[in-house]
Amino acid sequence: MTSAVSVRGLWKRFGQQVAVAGIDLDLPAGKFIGLVGPNGAGKTTTLSMITGLLRPDSGTVSVVGHDVWQDPVDVKARIGVLPEGLRLFERLSGRELLGYTGRLRGLPGPEVDKRASQLLDVLDLAGAQHKLVVDYSTGMRKKIGLAAALLHNPEVLFLDEPFEGVDPVSAQTIRGVLERYTASGATVVFSSHVMELVESLCDWVAVMAAGRIRAHGTLAEVRGEAASLQEAFLELVGANGRAAGSDLDWLGGGAR
Amino acid sequence: MTNPTPTIVRLKLSLLRNGLRQSAGRRAAYVASAVVVLLFAVLQLLGLILLRGDAHADSVVVILVAVLALGWAVMPLFFPGGDETLDPTRLVMLPLRPRPLVRALLAASLVGIGPLFTLCLVAGSVVAVADGGVAYVVGVIAVVLALLVCVALARAVAAANIRLLTSRKGRDLAVLSGLVIAVGAQVVNFGAQRLGSSGLAQLDPAADVLRWVPPASAVGAVRSVSEGSYGVAVLQLALSVGALLGLIAVWSRHLTRLMTSPDGSTLQAVSEAAVRERTPTGLARLLPAGRTGTVMERSLRYVWRDPKTKAAWVTSLAIGLIVPLFNALQGTGSIYFACFAAGMLGIQMYNQFGQDTSAFWMVALTISSPRDAYVELRGRALALLLITLPYAALVTVLTTALLGDWPKLPEVLGLSFALLGAMLATGAWTSARFPYSIPQEGYKNVAPGQAGLAWISIFGGMIAAALLCAPVIAVTIWLNVSEGGDAWTWLLLPAGAGYGAAITLLGLRLAAPRTAARLPEILMAVSKG
Fold first, then answer.
1. In this predicted structure, what is the pLDDT of residue B267?
2. Could you list the residue ranges that cross the membrane (chain B) (predicted)?
């Protein structure tokens, strides 16, 4: 099996805090890959280092066989990114944003406009294409970000929390587009802390906690004996059996 | 139903009092500003009383009241948060009928420092021009009328624009308010100096028109009565009464509509966008293809659409024009002040990536070689030149025309272009080396903790730019002092332009590899806002 992404000895510290503590990981090509973990596990930091937006303290990352930091020309053209917590150029309209991104990527103008129209249609944004992105809702922002990430038909797509704060209708639209995209052989890597979502979408999972990879493999391998990914996950990050109510026995109906 | 007026007036008083119940620092600022405003009002009052008997007193007071009314009209647009009772949507849940509500809100509007200030000014104006018992009677009516027209004006403007004020566009507008004050202060300062030098008689033509415009017409009526023209006075008072009634009618209609329709901050945005199809400006077709044109187009759009960028640009354009021109008008200016425009506008090249905010990641992902970074920076510099080059030339020509010193035009133009080039070069380099975040909300232009970085970037850059210009400045001085050098000063135009262009290219060449190598660091630095 060829790997879409290969990570070796990746470290990142912010001051005293270790965000990513030595990750080695090979993500298989052509799969729908979920990177799961609790808040603060280092998912965003890891994805930022893989996509070249954050410089690692040490370690190497290669995407489709090219080193991200030595060979950026080959890598940047092949990846699409939808980061979390970073702005878009919000004072452009949705259509202008796609036109701008596509042309920066070096695609010919008419081709950009054609692809933008189709993406806006499929993502249900055609009605809002002339509205400024600053006036978009969260779901619309994620969708326009996804369109911008897909515009140059990347081989690997990185999405950081693509479903966070998104309404069910938009989520379904995003899902549909992503499923169609992976069906053609492309790779999607996305991070999430919603296990049900990861379980229903992904065929390959990596579990992160406290800056390390706790488990990785196909969904079945990671789930193992557990009834659901949620349970397996809680087991892995050591949060299982922490009964929620033992100290709050006064809480609930009845006696005060 | 009980009368809501006392309740709402009490609400206003509570809001005023609560202004004092903040942290010690804010309370001190609040008290200090109130004291300053009141002192200013008292001084104005005294000044106006002293003006009594001056031949042009009536012109002064009419214009003063008109300016005051203008202030009341624009105040709610630029300081929407200033008065919470101005926002009627806060009262929307209460079972109130429009008519009592209008009365109550009007009464509440009369409470506060602003109305007190206005009262002082209008009362002083009446004292300055009133002559005789009838005039004082009319004066009292005029004071009440002018005050009511002012507050009704503010209320009507606020109610008519409440959608704007509570929306994103309103917040964008508020960012520009500091700028309006800065430029306004320059204009007032200049106007005052003109008056100081050539006397109050200059005001008369403007006053002749304004004495018919409410609420200045109410004060105009006092003068008319003093002169015995009772018919004119009645007409002027009637105009103000009419304006008051009209404003209250407009206000109450908007108020009724606001109280009975749903809060439409999102609703309206959707329908508005659906109606307004943006037509392509044609700008794109004129720009070069590829990354250069794409970057230029985005930069130019941001000059207009991004409130922070727009505020910075308008400040630079205004100050760059005002300083050389006003100095020339006062006869004290040197023609070399015209270079100020190029210097002010060149500042816009500084912290280019900070202006992108964290959206810089979209740029960073498409830069994979120093060549990409070079084209990116060059595109931004070209977009800037599209505005600055003609503007700097225009300011230089205007300054020259005012001073009538045409032989000096070529050398000043040459100096301007050289300075602009040096600013672009240092701007590109500091953008790559010392980027910092520009917070999108509020008035601050530097993120906390990055002030030192911003200082290095801007002041270090400006000093470097001045040093880079030294050869051109030296040649200018040499040609001006050496005998027969005057005949050759025209050479400074091509030399300065060439030098500016060369140094810009050099600056971009040096900045590009730094940008390409530091993309993650730049992104981190500009993502703090």
1. 45
2. 28-51, 57-79, 100-128, 134-161, 173-192, 230-251, 311-329, 335-353, 381-403, 415-432, 453-481, 487-508
